[in-house]
Automatic annotation (TrEMBL):
One of its GO terms (molecular function) is DNA binding. It comes from Halobacillus trueperi. Residues 2-50 form the Helix-turn-helix domain. This is Helix-turn-helix domain-containing protein. It holds the Pfam family HTH_17. It comes from the Bacteria. InterPro entries: HTH_17, SinI_DNA-bd. The lineage of its organism: Bacteria, Bacillati, Bacillota, Bacilli, Bacillales.
Length: 76
């Protein structure tokens, strides 16, 4: 399945300008049909897996309780 630049930006949750810059720098493989760039959606499978793993890792880190500070003394 091929996506336009706008659809790719929405799919990757990135700004359109950034996606265009990646295309111009040959970081994203495209097909140019004379009017627009078309991008194969399947090439982002690995990227999306890595982003999902990173999100899970961040969520796990944020959900860990803070350890008690051994220097805190209860002085009533």
């Amino acid at each position: 399945m091929y996506l336009t630049v706008k659809e790719t930006a929405e799919f990757l949750e990135l700004p359109e300008d950034y996606v265009r810059q990646l295309i111009l720098n040959h970081k994203i493989k495209t097909i140019h049909d004379g009017r627009q760039y078309l991008i194969n959606k399947n090439q982002f499978h690995n990227h999306l897996e890595q982003m999902e793993n990173y999100r899970k890792m961040i969520q796990e880190y944020l959900s860990e309780p803070l350890p008690e500070d051994p220097d805190v003394k209860d002085e009533d």
